[in-house]
C-alpha cells in the first residue's frame, strides 16, 4: 500500500511574494489598516507634523478600507433597491458612512477609537496569515503580540460597541464646543441604527442591553430617590422607542 504521507506546505519569501500578488485586495486592506494605525498614532503623539492632518488622514484611510471591503463583499454594483438593501446591511458601508460624517467635523479624539481598534484587530489577523507563508516559527515576537490581540478580540469588540453608543450623546455636546454641526447627531443616529441592526456584529445590541440592565438596577436600588426613578424609567422608554426593529436572531 502506498505511503500517504502529507508533504509539508512550501514556505519562504517566494511563497510570500506569490501570496501578495494573488491576494491584492487583502494586502491593500492590510496596508490601509496599517496606515490608519500609523496616522492615529501620529494624531495622539504629534511626531508627524500637524496632528490635525494625521487625524483626517486616519479617517480617510478608514474610508479606503471600508470601500475596499465593500468591493470585496459586493463586487457587482447594481442600481436597484435590492442592491441598496444589501449595501446598507454591510458593516463596511456603516463605517464608510461613519467616515463621511466625521470628515466634515472638527477633530474629536474619541472618533478614532473604534476606527483604530477595528484596524488593529483585522491588521493583526491578516499579519498572522502573512507570517504563516514564511514559516510557522518565523517572527515569534510578532506572533506573540498578534496572539495577545486575538485573545482580547472579544473585549476589543465590546469596547468598540461602547464607543459607538457613547459617541451619540457626545456628538450633541460637541455642538456647543463648535466641533460638530446640528446635523451631526441626526446623521450619527442613522449610523448607530445600522450598527444596532448589524447581522454580523451583535455587540452593539449586547452593550445596549447591558447598559439598560445596569440603569434599571440603579433605579431598583432602595436608595434611589423617587424623582430619579421616574427620570430613569422615562429615559429608558424614550431610548427604547428610538431603537430600530431587528429580525429575530
Describe this structure in words.
This protein is mostly helical and 249 residues long. It contains eleven helices and no strands. The chain has helices spanning 13-22, 24-44, 51-73, 81-89, 91-103, 112-134, 140-151, 153-176, 183-196, 203-220, 226-242. Helix 2 (24-44) packs across helix 6 (112-134), helix 5 (91-103) runs antiparallel to helix 9 and helix 8 (153-176) packs antiparallel against helix 9 (183-196). The chain starts with 12 loop residues before the first helix and ends in a 7-residue tail after the last helix. The mean pLDDT is 89.
SSE ordering: HHHHHHHHHHH
Oligomer: single chain
Contiguous uncertain segments of 5+ residues: none
Indicate the structural class.
Answer: mainly alpha
How much of the sequence lies in strands comes to under 5%
Query: What is the helix tally?
Result: 11
For the terminal residues, how far apart are their CA atoms? 51 Å
Radius of gyration: 22 Å
Please give the largest β-sheet.
Answer: none
The backbone outline, from C-alpha atoms, is: globular
**Rounded average pLDDT:** 89
DSSP summary, beta strand count: 0
Portion of residues within helices: over 70%
